[in-house]
Amino acid sequence: MPTLFLFIVVPVYHSLKPVSSTSFAFCPFHLISWTHRILTRLLTSLLYIIVHHFFPM
């Protein structure tokens, strides 16, 4: 069974894709897209943890 750390960090790590520093710094779309991707993964992981904590199967 994966640890809590792996469950949260691995999806976030895989969501990160190398982006050139110039396009990342000067294009707000990249920043918004990257932030949205990470927040979605974190919220999904958090929801999973809460559900399985309060409603164990």
Automatic annotation (TrEMBL):
Keywords: Acyltransferase, Transferase
Any GO MF annotation of the entry: acyltransferase activity
Protein name according to UniProt: Glycerol-3-phosphate acyltransferase
Organism encoding this protein: Arundo donax
